[in-house]
Amino acid sequence: MRDNKVIAPHLLDWYDRHARVLPWRVPPGGAKADPYRVWLSEIMLQQTTVAAVKDYFLRFTALWPDVGSLAAAPDQQVMAEWAGLGYYARARNLLACARMVAAAGGFPKDRNGLQALPGIGPYTSAAIAAIAYDQPETVVDGNVERVVARLHAVETPLPAAKPELVALAERLTPDTRPGDYAQAMMDLGATICTPRSPACGICPLIDDCDARVMGIAAELPRKTPKAAKPDRIGIAWVARRGDSILLEERPAKGLLGGTLAFPSAGWDGRDMPPPGSADWQEIGHVRHVFTHFNLSLMVVMGDLQDGPDRGHLVRLRDLDRNALPGLMRKVWDMARAEIAA
DNA sequence: CATCCGTGGAT
DNA sequence: TATCCAAGGAT
């Protein structure tokens, strides 16, 4: 029979020996974590893998070592540095949040205050409060949902099971070392209690897990099936004039909001004409997968005869591929190959 | 509560 | 190739 009181001690003992070393992390029992670095890493890590975040985190903290310097950064530079990481609303909220925090003289020191800031929801507010301020808030991300669903053998499928999992997780949260405990739960989920083939044989909670006894650990948490992704098509214009190429900033809201992009239409709910007159030549198609649809984008290229009526011309040698979101990098790579040919 | 919002890696 | 999914939040 599981004893809730021993779970945190078991987990913390394991964490003291096996904590992952990460750029934004303070070692177990170590010095106090910097709220700015905790916040920045947590925003980047939302629905994003540790491997993908590492370089972005190092780059951001090198450019902007504190919230004041980030708050003073130009919007376009932050968007360009975020390019490729996805979920661009995070970048816009990041900057809005940094400016509010800088104006207030620092981060709020409790969960409710944190959650009032843009881009900070139930998970992130609890994570910052626990990790940076050592408050016994319960952090519930996808890892914790999975660990708790297995410990308690919760068979209700997600997302309906979420409230129940949160309540169960709250009962496990210790009053001491809540920040280490939160990170330990996530490390356990990421390295031992993994989605497909959990390594129960080396799990520090093997004697505390109901699903393990029932032999259903790998099946939990159950999830309600997702709808199939529809296919969408569209067109992107690679408009050239001399040694320059046309780019535009996308509208702040919606798909790839606020990012630098080639003019395009037909795939994002906006019906736009070509940005100018040209003898457009089809050079190929790029495929891209978004969260809720598959995209096949026809790429056409041409020399502008008039216009453009929007966007701005950028010299090829000034075009930074890394400042483009992933989809537009594919468009650019195709166009660059065509130009070279 | 459902939908929208990226990207890349693992299986 | 198809599917899942990764430290979620806003609307």
Q: What's the layout of helices and strands?
A:
Layout: H1 4-18, H2 35-44, H3 50-63, H4 67-71, H5 75-82, H6 89-104, H7 111-115, H8 122-133, H9 142-151, H10 162-172, H11 178-191, H12 210-214, E1 231-241, E2 244-249, E3 260-261, E4 264-265, E5 281-289, E6 294-303, E7 312-315, H13 326-340
Parallel strand pairs: 1-6
Antiparallel strand pairs: 1-2, 1-4, 2-3, 2-7, 5-6
Helix pairs in contact: 1-11, 2-3, 2-8, 8-11, 9-10, 9-11
The chain binds a DNA duplex (11 and 11 nucleotides) through helix 2, helix 3, helix 6, helix 8 and helix 9.
In a nutshell, what does this entry contain?
It contains 13 helices and 7 strands. It has helices at residues 4-18, 35-44, 50-63, 67-71, 75-82, 89-104, 111-115, 122-133, 142-151, 162-172, 178-191, 210-214, 326-340, and strands at 231-241, 244-249, 260-261, 264-265, 281-289, 294-303, 312-315.
CATH superfamily heading of the largest domain: Hypothetical protein, domain 2
Query: How widely separated are the two ends?
Result: 69 Å
Q: Tell me the CATH architecture of the largest domain.
A: Orthogonal Bundle
Helices and strands: which structural class? alpha+beta
- The mean pLDDT is 96
Q: Residue share in helices?
A: 40-55%
Tell me the major beta sheet.
7 strands, mixed
Strand content: 5-15%
What is the 3D form? elongated
Radius of gyration from CA coordinates: 24 Å
- The CATH topology of the largest domain corresponds to Endonuclease III, domain 1
Number of strands: 7
Q: How many distinct domains?
A: 2
Protein name: Adenine DNA glycosylase
Family: Belongs to the Nth/MutY family.
Cofactor: [4Fe-4S] cluster
Pfam family, one: EndIII_4Fe-2S
